[in-house]
Write a structure and sequence with these properties.
heterodimer, A: about 350 residues, mainly alpha, 13 helices, globular, B: about 170 residues, Four Helix Bundle (Hemerythrin (Met), subunit A), 6 helices
């Protein structure tokens, strides 16, 4: 399918189309966050054999709205010993950093807010803002728990960025591009063309098939650690650190942290679904394929991965710090490196 | 028009935050103000159609160097309360620092004036891909520089591991 930005075509390349391209992902993000919060509440309840929220609306589906209203009403407390400027700035930096990632995510063949050649690289780079924001918030709170949580979070995110980046690098070697739209277009024509199954190509791709499967698994694990989700949520381990870097935050500022976490979850899920699961392409070749179906396929693939993230959160226990570092540096990194070398060899031979 | 507004936005951001970096009494403000300086420079790179350089700037400077600086400032005890302005800076250091700063100012000014800025016209929105050219150049004409940079990084990693292991 031809890729373009539908608003540039309809309205011309001007300020209005740019504004719509920015606002639309934000609207999507708000709706997605509400659904994901409900999902988190309900899935956790089902896993623990509870009913979950049942009173707000039928089956409790209005619960996230109620929570948002509650958070807006709450008093905004700034601790007396905190550094007010940095304390107030941190939630915005974290959210801006995670929202910036949406700039290059193709929702369908006809819509990506900014189609740039280095989309994958860009998504990884803007993830750095989250680290800065977390450290800023943790330090400015003037609280031991916050600072410890921020330090843990920063070291964890930096450690797991490396295997994640190696996976993305391997995918870039296979696809020969960093443009998200081109990577997606390459995987058109059915699920056997997905990079999860070795990407497009002849029978020879069977040599790299186990390695691409392994790479997608490595990225899934690394992305859990990068978004501070269980089993890697030691930065906010309740039993040790109360709530980690956002211990002192309340009201809407806490909501911003929460919002940024869900936004990050969607971004890593989107990267995984674009790079390995074909993004907006239909799994059945030309059946159910089109610009509108593209949105359906992309969002359902990404939401499925978000579902797996929630599922893992409520079934696995938390790892220790030393286990976290062991897994990152001694297991994920060497495996990712081996996969990268083998995929590079394959690219040279074929 | 739009491009000019964006340019002035980033330029003012760089200058304003750079002033905070230099003049702030609190070390931690200086470090966090660097975030906006680096980000502004990345924005200027985008305006110059250097997309890869801009993203690399964010990746290396904000994701790497700035995080390292923040860790350094936070983990060094009694640095956050140091009064940098009226602190330990002696007259001799001030003198040499002044000379070096003046030299750098003159040098930068000379470069800015003497460089022939070949601006490609009307590329405001169309950022052409630079990664392929950069990749080819790095692995052909600039291979030695590229490889020596990687050897340097390898030495740094081995050195860090050596220091960390020594009990």
């Amino acid at each position: 399918m031809e890729t373009f930005n539908v608003f540039d075509v309809l309205l011309g390349n001007n300020f209005l189309s740019a504004l719509i391209s920015v606002v639309l992902p934000l609207v999507f993000l708000v709706i997605y966050a509400l659904i994901a919060i409900l999902g988190e509440l309900k899935i956790s309840a089902w896993i623990q054999e509870r009913l979950g929220p049942m009173r707000t609306g039928p089956y409790g589906i209005l619960q996230p709205l109620a929570e948002v209203i509650k958070l807006i009403q709450k008093e905004d407390i700034v601790p007396a010993g905190a550094n007010k400027l940095l304390f107030n700035l941190a939630p915005y930096i974290i959210f801006a950093g995670s929202f910036a990632g949406f700039a290059v995510i193709p929702f369908t063949a006809a819509f990506v807010p900014a189609e740039i050649n280095i989309g994958l690289f860009y998504v990884f780079a803007v993830g750095a803002f989250a680290v800065i924001g977390i450290v800023m918030g943790g330090w400015a709170s003037n609280n031991k728990y916050s600072l410890l949580g921020a330090m843990r979070s920063a070291s964890q995110m930096i450690s797991y960025e490396i295997p994640g980046a190696l996976v993305i690098l391997s995918a870039a070697v296979l696809a020969n591009t960093l443009d998200m739209q081109k990577i997606t277009s390459l995987q058109e024509g059915g699920f056997w063309n997905w990079f999860l199954f070795g990407g497009p190509g002849g029978f020879s791709k069977i040599w790299i098939l186990p390695f691409t499967l392994l790479l997608s698994l490595i990225y899934m694990i690394a992305s859990l650690a990068e978004t501070n989700r269980t089993p890697f949520d030691i930065p906010e381990g309740e039993s040790e650190l109360v709530a980690g870097y956002h211990t002192e935050y309340s009201g809407m500022k806490f909501a911003m942290f929460f919002f940024a976490e869900y936004s990050n979850m969607f971004i890593v899920a989107a990267i995984l679904s674009i790079v390995f699961l074909g993004g907006w392409t239909s799994p059945f070749g030309s059946f159910m394929s089109g610009y509108w179906w593209g949105i359906f396929w992309f969002v359902s693939k990404a939401m499925f991965i978000v579902f797996i993230q929630i599922w893992l959160r409520w079934t696995l226990p938390r790892v220790r710090v030393d286990q976290l570092m062991y897994l990152g540096w001694k297991i994920l990194l060497p495996f990712a490196l081996v996969c990268f070398v083998i995929i590079s060899l394959y690219r040279i031979i074929y | 028009m739009l491009e000019e507004i964006v340019f002035w936005f980033f330029a003012l951001m760089i200058i304003g935050s750079a002033l905070v970096v230099v003049l702030s009494r609190n070390m931690i403000y200086s470090v966090f103000a660097l975030l906006f300086t680096f980000f502004g420079v990345a924005g200027i790179y985008v305006l110059l159609s250097a997309d890869f350089l801009a993203v690399t700037q964010i990746m290396i400077y904000i994701g790497g160097i700035l995080v390292l600086l923040i860790f350094g400032v936070m983990l060094t005890s009694k640095i956050t309360g140091v009064d940098v302005k009226s602190g330990q800076t002696g007259k001799v250091q001030m003198f040499f620092a002044g000379i070096i700063s003046l030299f750098i100012i003159v040098l930068l000014f000379y470069i800015a004036v003497s460089t022939n800025w070949n601006r490609v016209e009307s590329t405001a929105y169309e950022v052409n891909s630079t990664i392929e050219i950069i990749g080819k150049q790095l692995l052909t004409n600039y291979l030695l520089a590229f490889e020596s940079a990687s050897v340097l990084l390898l030495i740094a990693i081995i050195g860090a591991a050596l220091i960390a292991r020594r009990k």
